[in-house]
Design a protein that fits this description.
There is one protein chain. By secondary structure, the protein is an alpha/beta fold. It has three domains: 80 residues, Arc Repressor Mutant, subunit A, CATH 1.10.10; 105 residues, D-Maltodextrin-Binding Protein, domain 2; 88 residues, Periplasmic binding protein-like II (D-Maltodextrin-Binding Protein, domain 2, 3-Layer(aba) Sandwich), CATH 3.40.190.10. Helices cover 41% and strands 22% of the residues. It contains ten helices and twelve strands. Strands 4-3-5-12-6 form a five-stranded mixed beta sheet. β3, α5 and β4 form a beta-alpha-beta unit. α1 packs across α4 and α5 packs antiparallel against α9. The radius of gyration is 22 Å and the shape is globular. It starts with 6 loop residues before the first helix and ends in a 5-residue tail after the last helix.
């Protein structure tokens, strides 16, 4: 007898596997945790296989679960492609999405991949610049959605995360031990005056040895152990957090915020904002209060 897979339950399973938990998957799917758990149980019963190892606090896949994940991703991708081509509900249009270069990783590539897969006919333009420049473009109406890194969260924005601001340098580097402390920053970097003030407050002399409008120039200088820099923790995969053990001042936390233009393409902007929110796992009610629906 031919049996058919429940694609709704399969989507829940794949989402749980990709997000690492039922809670995050439920938020991304706009379902309750109990609904997702029931779908997972129904899928396991239908296949007669245990797909998730629930013996530890964190959920992991069994060998059969890993196999199903591989098939599941392909089945869902094909399902979504058929649905887009065979219905008249495909969104079309254009969105401009602005993100500071220093927070593109780790979340934005995954968001872009999911959005373009869900809306293949939408032209999504990514603009990468400094927060100051992105806010100016946003105010001028040139950008639909922007992420910012700031000291606070403005009233017209939602907070995605509070991130630690840390000293970075070359892996195994010693530039952080020099005095005056050698610094490398982009000309318009928001983090530059914050780091300078922190050093001034504790009496550590510093000098700006590399200054450029090119982020690649700054990163090359840091990789060469010519200087140190400061960024949000976890946003630069090619540099190393300086192991200063208190010899450099602790830097203040920074806020990662999102702003959505009220006149942006409402349905598309809403879906992109929801994907960004889900990636950062912040409260869904925050995106709902934005004037984008």
């Amino acid at each position: 007898m031919t049996r058919n897979l429940d694609l709704t339950a399969l989507r829940s399973f794949v989402t749980v596997a990709e997000t690492g938990g039922v809670t995050r998957a439920a938020g991304q799917l706009h379902l309750t945790q109990s609904a997702v758990s029931m779908q997972l149980k129904r899928l396991e019963q239908a296949l007669g296989q245990t797909l998730l190892d629930r013996s530890n606090r964190s959920i992991s896949l069994t060998a059969q679960g890993e196999l199903l994940l591989s098939y599941g991703r392909r089945l869902l991708a094909l399902n979504d492609e058929v649905w887009s081509r065979m219905t008249n509900q495909v969104y079309e249009g254009e969105l401009v999405f602005g993100v500071p270069h220093d927070i593109i990783y780790p979340h934005i590539p995954g968001v872009l991949k999911k959005f373009t897969a869900a809306y293949p006919r939408v032209k999504l333009q990514l603009v990468s610049s400094f927060t100051k420049d992105l806010k100016a473009q946003f105010a001028a109406g040139d950008v639909d959605i922007i992420l910012t890194t700031e000291n606070t969260t403005p009233e017209d924005a939602i907070n995605l995360a509070s991130a630690e601001f840390v000293w970075l340098g070359a892996p195994g580097g010693i530039a952080w031990k020099t005095r005056p402390l050698r610094l490398a920053y982009e000309t318009n970097c928001l983090f530059r005056p914050v780091a300078q003030k922190a050093l001034d407050d504790v009496g550590i002399p510093w000098e700006m040895v590399v200054e450029s409008n090119s982020t690649m120039t700054i990163e090359a200088s840091l990789s060469a152990d010519m200087a140190v820099h400061s960024r949000l923790r976890g946003t630069q995969p090619y540099l190393e957090e300086v192991p200063h053990k208190g010899e450099l001042p602790k830097l203040p936390d920074m806020q990662i915020n999102m702003m959505v233009a009220p006149k942006a393409n409402a349905p598309l902007a809403h879906h992109l904002a929801e994907m960004v929110r889900a990636a950062y796992c912040c409260d869904a009610s925050d995106t709902r209060r934005l004037a984008i629906v």
